Amino acid sequence: MTEESDYPDEREQKPESEIDQQSVAKSIVEHEDEIRTALEEMDAEPPEDKEVGLQLPKLDLGRRQFMAAGSLGLAGATTGCLDRLDGDNGQTRRGVAEADVPPGEHDDYYAFLSGGHSGEVRVYGIPSMRQLMRIPVFNTEAARGYGYDEETREMLEDSGGYTWGDTHHPRLSQTDNDYDGRFAYINDKANGRMARIDLEYFETDAIVDIPNTQGVHGACAQLPDTELIFGVGEFRVPIPNDGRDLDDPDEYGSVCTAIDPETMNVEWQVEVDGNLDNGDGSKDGRWFFSTGYNDEGGVNEAEMTRDDRQHTKAFDIPAIWDAIEDGEYEMINGVRVLDGTQDSPLNQGDRPIVRYVPTPKNPHGVSVTPDNKYAISSGKLDPTTTIIDIEALGEVDDPADAIVGQPNLGIGPLHTAYDGRGHAYTTLFVDSQVVKWDIEAAVEAYPEDGDGDSPAVIEKIDVHYNPGHLIASESYTADPEGDWLLSLNKLSQDRFLPVGPVHPENDQLIYIGDDEEGMQLVKDTPAYPEPHDASIVSADKLNPTQVYDREDQPDKEYISSDDNEIIRDGDEVHIKMHNQRNHFGFEDITVQEGDTVTITTTNVESTPDILHSLAIPNYDINLKIAPQETREVTFEATEPGVHWFYCAYFCSALHLEMRSRLLVEPAD
Amino acid sequence: MRQRIAKLKEARRALAVASAVLFVAVIALPVWKITIDAPQYPFTLVVEVYSYPRLGGDWQEVHGLNRYVGFYYPDPVLIEPHFDVHHTSIRTPEWVFGPVALAAVALATLYAGLKPEGSIAQTLGRVFTAVVVFGAAAVAWVQYRLYQAGHTLDPDAQLRGVDSFTPPVIGPYEVANLDGFSQPATGGYVALSAFALLFFAFLLRDTDASVAELPRLAIAAPGNTVEKLKGFRRRLSKGEG
Q1: Domain count, chain A
Q2: pLDDT at residue A75 greater than cutoff 80
Q3: Residue A383 and residue A490 in one domain
Q4: Residue A41 placed within a domain
Q5: Which of A541, A558, A577 is where one domain is finished?
Q6: Which residues of A touch B58 (CB under 8 A)?
Q7: Is the predicted pLDDT of residue A91 greater than 70, yes or no?
Q8: Tally of CA atoms within 13 A in the half-sphere of A302 that contains its CB
Q9: Between chains, do B61 and A606 touch, taking CB under 8 Å as contact?
């Protein structure tokens, strides 16, 4: 393994500057050389780990197949998708027609895409791929006043005071295994947090800073009724991480965290061997599955890729609650932490709290099939996915015996989505493809005997390039719609007009509603870095409000046009004023230098879409105030002089005239 | 007393009493409304107007639009309304008397409906005539006020280039980019219903037919009318002869 080798992962390689076509091709060649080298090393050293009795069909993969895969990737890189759009006979394909959403028409679905290290969540319409909204979560965002008023500022401050986060897995609350339109939950991989987005207002309403963990990566709701939210720790750290065991990685640990979806308090954590990566839950609420790529407990790349298989962990939720009831936990940083490592007494009985299912190699994505029969865990560094029989998992003595399929799909399988018709769709990161395969056919073909694609493979489609997650409409529910598939590709390379060294990602829309015609690539969509995962929900399952309900702001004082007043108490000044087209409650406000100024302001409009803002530029303030909404801000009047404050939303023809003066008199 | 209640079975009396009740009910309801469509609104705005100085519906939103062109809600002068008025608003003190007028009409109607046998026909005739005259005058007056309002735009309006206009009592009009349509609101339709009941009471003023007999009378009415016309023609032809 070379030092520069760069394994496919969600923290994928970014193109360096001065990318041109030649260097793109070169980098792909280099990349695949590295993979090849790595896998050849595996060829040279066949797995010794016989006791689990696993077939690792792809480890004796022939060189020919690698060459084929490599050239396929390059072919994908150079041909583009125009030929796909036109179809073989020049006629418009069905997917293209289905994807047409004329001006003024609405989409069939909302898609919630994470925003990666932008810290936000984006909302798209499917199939138009129009970006409908961006929801700031761990970042500040002036246009939505997020992080600029007291409430959101405090929320960010109380959850650690960071200015950014790294969102990955937006999951929506469900009731009876179907989206209920209440909340979306989103992790922060960077700072170990979990946030909740209120889907009535499309606003972040709670953030919890999770102790005893770093890098909360996978996120998922316990089904069928969203009784818990799970977040999994990716980076192993000492628990508690207070300076102990600083350079003793064997003592590091990762925890799976369960959060109450209503209070957003941490309920419990389970420490595991190895680390945790990506997660999904069984539809009956018993299991939460999480992959992990570092059973080795390594602290560098070579160590983390040493072993040929790691474990997909299956957390037995009722068993965990039983253990808690029996007091089998330790309080660490105020949280009940259970020992879920393999040697733990809690894992010795006939009802272990965590089952370790051996999975090749550095498995990344795991998702449960809509019928709750299987959890499918993708190999990432192995060309197979591993199909775990969920019912068997609770019955077998050796969790490895619950494996009922291991189809050979292609190079770099990462994530799997479902259409509800028995098909699975898996991204192949290295191959830059999405493979469609038949789940039951893969189970029947098990064990597969080696070379070539599994007989379960139905077809593959090139995507551009290096897909991470993919998601199908309502794939995370018990009843996927089976029409649209979104491939969230990590690189766009040559797909868009160049915009400097930072390339947009490429989210590609694929029509999967016609099994006869097969998958049809219908749209490229540039995305600001960088969406990882998404959830797609039928539009009729959400009911967002257009105007604030005063009853939803019980702790805020509604300021009508009759309530405008300035209350001074010593050097504290409280200004209560309404705002509406085209004025604020006061034409001018006079305070003294050194005063602590609080402004409470209500947008008294009741017409949808008439937003105002309170922008006080010299004090770094911009509040968003939606119709009937009240917001508050406090600041020190440190700068004497005239400070125009204005409405930064273009609210009406007299928008520019909607401004007043803040007069700060100099101190004597 | 029992006798009087028994007499209410007479259709003309029952109709008059019902009419009076409806006239009173109008006070609680918006009598008139303007619906407004504008390019910047995907939905229709509505302003509801009561018989006294009170507005309902999207009056605030419409006020914002009106301000651009210097068109303001009327100033009821005698009371402080819940909506903003302006020094250029037309002054309409009579607006506060709407409920009084409705109550008076209701009382008169009720009075007619309870009149003794000897004078009820005459009283119903007088009240009906009065309501017709009074109603027509009221509509005419409102139309005059609408003209006045549309031609008293604030010369200092924020937006220039909007001409004077006259919203009709019923019908479409245009101002700037707004398509307005004025029409009766719920209360207006209730008032029209009350008027219709009064009209029927007036038609039946000479008969003590009961409510139960109304269907028969209704069926016979066209035939009766034909008979009357025939008789009229006979008389005419005799006259010629």
Answers
A1: 2
A2: no
A3: yes
A4: no
A5: A541
A6: 607
A7: no
A8: 5
A9: yes
- Name which of A606, A607, A654 is nearest B158 (Cβ-Cβ): A654
Give the model's pLDDT for residue A59: 44
User: Touching check for A652 and chain B: CB below 8 Å?
Assistant: yes
Q: Looking at the structure, do residues A516 and A627 belong to the same domain, yes or no? A: no
A553-567 per-position pLDDT tens digit? 999 999 999 999 999
Of B61, B158, B159, the CB nearest to A607: B61
Q: How far is CA A609 from CA A146, A313, A605, A652, B172, in A?
A: 18, 47, 10, 11, 27
Three-state secondary-structure class, residue B96: helix
Pairing of the two strands A588-592 and A659-665: parallel
> pLDDT tens across A349-389, in order?
899 999 999 999 999 999 999 999 999 999 999 999 999 99
One domain for residues A455 and A564: no
Which range of residues forms the domain containing residue A434?
82-541
Residue A631 above 90 pLDDT? yes
Contact A56, A408 (CB under 8 A): no
pLDDT band at A504 (very low <50, low <70, confident <90, very high): very high
Dihedrals φ, ψ of A251, to 5°?
A: -90, -5
Residues linked to residue A197 through DSSP beta bridges, in sequence order = A184, A204
Q: Is residue A314 classed as helix, strand or coil in its secondary structure?
A: strand
Distance CA B6, CA A200 (A): 59
Residue A234: strand, helix, or coil: strand
Residues A480 and A499 in one domain: yes
Contact A363, A292 (CB under 8 A): yes
Chain B residues 39-78 with a CB less than 8 Å from chain A: 58, 60-61, 64, 68
Measure in Å the smallest separation between the Cα of A152 and chain B Cα atoms: 30
Give the model's pLDDT for residue A71.
41
Q: Note the pLDDT tens digit of each residue in A517-559.
A: 999 999 999 999 999 999 999 999 999 999 999 999 999 999 9
